[in-house]
Amino acid sequence: MDKNFAFLIVTGAPDYTEFGIDLLAINITQEFRGVKFIPQGVHFVYASSKDQYGNPSVSRSGFVHYFKNGEILVKEWNRENEELQNRTKGDVEVEKQRIRENLKNLDRFLAIYDYQNIGKWKNLTNLLTEESIKRMSPETGIIRNEVEFKSCPDKDRPRGSNATPIRNVKIRSVDDESMYLPNMEVISETQPKYSKLPERYNQFSSPEEKTLNNVDTINLIDKLVNEITTKSNLLEELQFSFIVYLCTLSIESLAHWRQIVSLLCNSEQAVEKYKPFYRHFVNIIRHQIPEIPIEFIEQSSTNTIYIDIKNLLKNLEMNGCKDISDSLQKHLDEAISWTFDDLLEEDPEDLPQVVEIDT
After folding, report:
1. Rounded to whole angstroms, how far apart are CA atoms 45 and 352?
2. Which residues, in sequence order, are CB contacts of 41 under 8 Å at separation 6+?
C-alpha cells in the first residue's frame, strides 16, 4: 500500500449511480469499489442514484472529509435514503486492516483520483482544514443539496371551532399571512453550520440605517467579523459554501456565498480598514467566479455578481489597492471575458437628477 495517498472504499452502490469526488463525476458500474491515490487534504465526495436511462432519481448528497496519507475510509450505500453513509456492518477497523492487506486484489476496481483538476481544486479549498470542515459540516456529516424542514406538530395546526375563520380576519401584511402557514422549521442536523449573516435592513431598521447600509456596508461587516465570526473563519466559510454549491448544486449554499460576497464588495470603508483581509478575499473569489455556471456570469448591468465585483474593484482603487484591482481584472478578462471600463467614473444612475419645472 502506498502510504503517500489515501483510499476511499465504497460498498453497495448500484449501477448507474453518479459518483463524484471534487470536480470529477462519473457513472459507476457494478465493478466500482472506490477511489485510489487520493492526495492528502480536503475533498468532497458526493453521489446521486440514476435509473437505467441515466436520469437522476434523487438529488446529490455527500460529505466533506480531510483525507490523510495512508488513510482508508469506508462508506456504504444506504438504499433507503440513496446516499453514502458510514459503515454500519461488522468491525470497521478489522475491515480496514483486511482491505489494507488486499489492496492489490482491489486495485482494478478502484478509480484513480482525477489529478488533471487538482490545482484548481486546491485553489478552491486552500484555507480549509480538518477543524474548519468539522465546524461547518452538518451534525449528521451528510450534506444534501436541499435544506430539510419539519413542520409543526399536527395538534398545533388551526382547525375546527378553535380556529378563527380566515374570512373574518383582516390580513394587514405579508407578515400577518404567515400565521396561517405551516410552521416550517429547519432540521439543524441536516444543514451546514453557516454564520447568521447580518441583513442590510429589516422591518425594524430606521430610514437612516437603511440608507447607510445601502451606501456602504461597513457597519454590517464590522458586526460580522467582530461579533458573529472572525475574519479567518469567514474566509473559510466563503470557500466551504462555494464547494457545497459546486458539488451538490445547493441553492441555499449559493445564496449564502452570494450574501457574503455582496456584503464585502460594497464597502469602501471596509477595504481601507481591513486591507490584508481583502487581499485574501480577492484571491479566493478570483478562483471561484470562473467556476460559476455561464448563465450566472453574463456581463451585464442586471447581473448582480458582475455589479458587486465592479464595486469591489472601484473600492480597491479608491484605497490604494490598484495592483490588486488590476490583477483581478486581468484574471477575469482572461477567464470569462469580463471587462471593467471607466471604473472611477460616476454611474449616470447615481448622479443628481436635474428636473426642470415650468413656471
Report:
1. 53
2. 66, 67, 122, 125
Place of cell 453514502: 84
Report the b/e string of 123-146 with b at 16+ CB within 10 A.
ebbebbeeebbeebbbeeebbbbe
Residue 275 has which C-alpha cell?
486591507
pLDDT in tens, 127-178: 999 999 999 999 999 998 876 656 555 555 444 434 333 333 333 333 333 3
Amino acid at 225: V
Between 248 and 153, name the one with better pLDDT: 248
Distance CA 193, CA 229 (A): 12
For residue 184, what are the CA distances in angstroms to 25, 152, 157, 195, 245?
33, 6, 12, 20, 23
The per-residue pLDDT for range 117-128, each reduced to its tens digit, is 999 999 999 999
What's the mean pLDDT when you consider all of the chain? Answer: 84
| pLDDT tens digits, 298-311 | 898 889 999 999 99
**84, three cell numbers:** 453514502
pLDDT category of residue 1 using cuts at 50, 70 and 90: low
